[in-house]
Design goal:
Layout: E1 2-5, E2 20-23, E3 26-32, E4 35-36, E5 41-42, H1 47-64, E6 72-79, H2 85-95, E7 102-107, E8 117-124
Parallel strand pairs: 6-7
Antiparallel strand pairs: 1-2, 2-3, 3-8, 4-5, 6-8
Helix pairs in contact: 1-2
């Protein structure tokens, strides 16, 4: 069974994809970028502010699906530049201070809307 998860408290999809898909007890959250859902704009600031917004967006989608950060088992962090890794990691770590999920983090040539970070997430209940 596949259930589409959508919330107005996270940015709407900017393409032909869903914010998240629930399949059985597994939630697949599409890559989130630092768009403030209230304004529809990329948040001002650098990697710290952008990572914070991405994590908030992920949290809202988790909440909509009845999950929490504690249910996250895997994250993939895409960075525009690996020099932003330490600052991203500091913000990310606040959300996963206990039993953090598995994770991959790597730099890519370019991200949508020229953002500094995108994170996709998998959670399981």
């Amino acid at each position: 069974m596949k259930k589409i998860i959508s919330t107005k408290n996270a940015p709407r999809a900017i393409g032909p994809y869903s914010q998240a898909v629930l399949s059985g007890n597994t939630l697949y959250i599409s890559g989130q970028i630092p768009i403030n859902p209230e304004t529809g704009k990329i948040v001002a600031g650098g990697i710290t502010e952008q990572t914070e917004q991405v994590m908030k967006n992920i949290g809202e989608i988790l909440k909509e699906a009845g999950f929490s950060y504690a249910d996250v088992v895997k994250s993939t962090c895409l960075l525009s530049d690996m020099s932003n890794f330490a600052a991203m990691n500091e913000v990310y770590g606040k959300y996963y201070s206990k039993n953090p999920p598995a994770r991959a983090a790597f730099a890519v040539k370019e991200l949508p809307m020229s953002v500094l970070i995108e994170i996709e997430t998998i959670a399981v209940k």
